[in-house]
Amino acid sequence: MAQVDPEPGKTSDENVKVSWKFDHIYSDITALLEGKQSEYWVSSTSADSEESTCPLPGVKNYTEIEGWLAQNGFQLIPFQEDPVTGYFVVHIDYDIFYNMGFDTPQELPYVEDIYALAYGVDYPDEPFRVKNIVGYFMKRDWIELYPESGGPVGATFRVPAQLVEFFREAIRGPLSDRYSSQTDAIAQCMWQVIREARLSYSNLILQPDESIKRV
Predict the structure, then answer these.
(1) pTM for the whole thing?
(2) For the chain, what is the domain count?
(3) d(CA 128, CA 125)
(4) Residue 191 burial by CB count (10 A; 0-12/13-18/19+): exposed, middle or buried?
(5) DSSP state of 8
């Protein structure tokens, strides 16, 4: 897993303000597998209970947080925090699933689509310090919003004519309840590509003891 930015938490020169929204986030993996959403956005699991008081910085409601996007793309820095503190999208060590009784990845085919959201401190030359394991989510449920984007911009794409026609038919037909418009569908597809890239950049893995290591 490549680390794009050697300085954890470094924000871009433009300091892009974003919101991370999670359609479903769960207090533990068992709840996720059972499809039971947590009543509380912040998990009771904490590596430092004295510092895990609610609400956590930048929390707007129990499914959304806001702050500055770090250059690495998998860290969100609350406005009042320093650049090494924030929310991190974290991979999950398969040993966690093994300890739950899953012997092979084939027994849980979507295991690679499950991630953790952690709140902690990431100094370059020190072990990652976990303050909270906020929750667990499926990749598809992580959405990024841009409250101060300055409005939409025009974009031109050259694609096969038949592809465009099939796309329009899908939006008007069976997917009309999923996308509000063609623009909405295209924007969501763009985010899916961006999200895949962000997850490939993340170099943090949650361990069975709820510590987080870099790889």
Answers:
(1) 0.82
(2) 1
(3) 9
(4) middle
(5) T
3 in a structural domain? no
Flag whether 178 is in a domain.
no
- CA–CA distance, 117 with 12 (Å, rounded to integer): 22
Domain contains 181: no
Q: For residue range 173-194, what is the model confidence (pLDDT) as tens digits?
A: 988 998 999 999 999 999 999 9
- Cα(202)–Cα(210) distance, integer angstroms: 17
Structural domain boundaries enclosing 149: 17-153+197-214
In a domain, 182, yes or no: no
pLDDT of residue 34 exceeding 70: yes
Buried b (16+ CB within 10 A) or exposed e, 151-167: eeeeeeeeeeeeeeeeb
Helices in the chain by DSSP H: which ranges? 29-34, 94-99, 161-172, 182-201
- Nearest CA to 115 among 2, 46, 199? 199
Interval 92-106: pLDDT, tens = 998 998 888 887 666
